[in-house]
């Protein structure tokens, strides 16, 4: 289901983040011809170049997705654009809503314009479960970004698709490393609400979703990976047991839900479910048109579902994600 990248020139916006690093690794392993990394932080680019041994296939451009002229220059002769750049820390986005709009909405609009100008074959926009039933400015901006991407197919030869993911284990600022640091340094974990659930997937799985979407011929599709979910409280309890080796010594504080935060996340809402199809064994695709595949038989796809991971299953997920060894505490 993953295409041949050997003759492809790929541009990745926001390349220096955790998604961009893993995507770069997998694309280089797949024999990509060229990767153009487009981002604002020159030191992060320098560090990333060293990490990949200054691979000559990996090139960097300093630029912001808010800058259409620079995007146009960087996108020349590019085959596929993978758009990762975004402001995504929910509390920060709540404080700076206009900055969020400029990056997460106007930035998407600029990517679309530059792709059309440069006759790019395909654009894959990375969205979020926060775009479904959005309660915060981050989710709202991602939802509008999805709408712009889907609409762009109506007036372009470029194919535009989205991928909608959940929480990625180990991504920058994500909950697992935050919990681990808090356990080791403060002997406590802060949880906003003990009833809260979230979807989780590993970083390599998230990148596989991107690569699957890159091989689609379903313009306007929004790809969703089937992924497990759990109570955040259970996740914290597993991490405490594994990292403290003395469960009673680490305190769990329920501090109250933050501005714009939801108790449960939804990847596919009831309205979208009517237009959602099974795509292989591990994916769904929300399509604005009938694509001739089997439709799903669920009313919505929520993190509070019929099977939430138990402690043993959470531990196996963390082992798979590289956060635990088979036995952290002896």
Written overview of the protein:
This protein has twelve helices and 16 strands. The longest helix is centred in the middle third of the chain and has 16 residues, at 137-152. Helix 1 packs across helix 9 and helix 6 runs parallel beside helix 7. Strand 2 (34-39), helix 2 (42-51) and strand 3 form a beta-alpha-beta unit. The chain is globular. The mean pLDDT is 92. The strands form four sheets. The protein has a nine-stranded mixed sheet, with helices on both faces. It is 37% helix and 21% strand. The chain is α/β, with parallel strands linked by helices.
Summarize, please.
With 330 residues, the protein is an alpha/beta fold. The chain is built from twelve helices and 16 strands.
Determine the N-to-C terminus distance: 42 Å
Identify the overall geometry.
Answer: globular
Number of helices: 12
The strand count comes to 16
**What ranges have pLDDT less than 50 throughout 5 or more consecutive residues?**
none
Biggest sheet character? 9 strands, mixed
Largest sheet strand order: 3-2-1-4-5-6-10-15-14
